[in-house]
Write a structure and sequence with these properties.
Order of helices and strands: EHEEEEEEE
Domain Core: 1-102
Helix content: 10-25%
Organism: Paenibacillus borealis
Mean pLDDT: 92
CATH architecture: Sandwich
Protein name: Core domain-containing protein
Pfam families: Fe-S_biosyn
CATH superfamily: HesB-like domain
Largest sheet: 8 strands, mixed
InterPro entries: ATAP_core_dom (IPR000361), HesB-like_dom_sf (IPR035903)
Length: 106
Amino acid sequence: MQIQLDPLTSGRLEESLNDKPGSFKLFYDTEDCGCNGVLVLLIVNEPNTTDIVFQQQPFVFLCDRQQESLFDEVMTLKADEHYPSYKLTSDSTLFGSNIRVRDARQ
């Protein structure tokens, strides 16, 4: 898998790290939502044992092995210019248009 980023998105992700180490995890959060899950970008210290690293530059991106099949091979993450959220798309799918970053580092 690969995530393409534009300069605005890269800058916003860099700001989210707040000069601390961390990785971005694509994650469908199903806790308390009563649905198939809400896509979030978690900032984590390190991968869980079930996570796979699928991209390392310019940021480390990972996802849970069990959720890998929910994503496409090439995707684009784009920051909203006027709101602190992101849109994740591929050539065939809109994965989410109001994706938030949640810092889960300890």
